[in-house]
């Protein structure tokens, strides 16, 4: 047993050495021996556990399922310990995995979710060093006051409340000092280890995770990019008066320090906070859905980290309106026009339960013969519900359990699918799961209004695209008329649903029923 683990560790170490030796831009000595050794050892132990624990048990039996669940749990706990020990990029990747509720076995997502609350904190001395290096001044020269305890700490940075010399209260986001230097090396280490594991388990298809980290981490580590994203989305969604995005103070912002307007509120999944403050839970859920439908289907510029710490709610004392505050703008997905149109049409087909078009557009998005699984992953509904229409009935507890169980049962197919779909889809799937988690916490999941808002955005997006491709005035007018009629039908249906659920609607139905029986 020990010999096998030692062999696997040696193989990983040798592969790492060869890989790094051939890369002239990296010095292998930059890797901390402890960090690398810890990652190799954890990978070896997890791999050995999967190789041996299920070997002599009949596949598909109750005992096999039970043992597999235990191995998943042990492996998830080891992975969590590795992320907490190596910090930085490891925690970021672990958080990403923990957000994939309906795509990975529950043992992993449940165990890794805690990484959102176990991110490291930089010391006061480290914070002072970053500010001194980037802004050229000491904290006391820049701020009247600066709170030592961070408002929140994440895998890459932490945020402090401070007051500027002119009296403005600000939030100061400061990058952990070692993250920049370690991130590229950590990703390289993960890539090597995943390649080794894939040699042992050919069905293990998680290279997409490394590819996403390679692409996104440099962007997330550039706080000037985050500031530009914040301003862009604020301008793009300026018609939504319920949305608030903190203003950026560019004169005191760098790639590692971001100063922004201080905003506070309750987390978007805190139903008790909303009830205490007189905030309509259904309105918040509906507005959040509108926000993301607009970003995804209409604009193709999507905030991809809507975990509860990044989405706050607050009631405005003056107007009494509830605001949604969108924070942390480091991770955005830009959707190409062709991808966005296929995605719009796929969702239209899913809402209408048009299986031919579901198959057509799923295949166009890379799902191939796995399109039924793809439809279930997108909607977090069973294939039976997809066929009947996802807007017909809300998600039942038994269906939710079925979907989570399928995430474990179909893990090889899910990972293969994630490897095949366009890279743009990966962050959308993560975003979908985070939004569903919020809806579940608020008990507003799968309401009819969310699908109606989605339908509106899809109709507008497709119509705008068709007009842009048409050179005929008559054809553009025809498209606009079809768009107006479709939106009018949705408005009429929404009115019907409102009447059906209201006291006035009940009286009207009772009156019509009485008149019918009287005649």
Automatic annotation (TrEMBL):
Q: Name one GO biological process term.
A: mitochondrion organization
What start and end residues bound the annotated signal peptide? 1-17
SMART domains given for it?
S_TKc (SM00220)
| Record keyword Methyltransferase present | no
Keywords from UniProt, A to Z, are: Kinase, Signal, Transferase
What's one GO MF term for it? ATP binding
List the PROSITE patterns. PROTEIN_KINASE_DOM
Role description: Appears to be essential for maintaining mitochondrial cristae formation and mitochondrial function by acting via YME1L1 in a kinase-independent manner to regulate essential mitochondrial structural proteins OPA1 and IMMT. The action of this enzyme is not yet clear. It is not known if it has protein kinase activity and what type of substrate it would phosphorylate (Ser, Thr or Tyr).
Similarity-based family: Belongs to the protein kinase superfamily. ADCK protein kinase family.
According to UniProt, the name of this protein is AarF domain-containing protein kinase 1
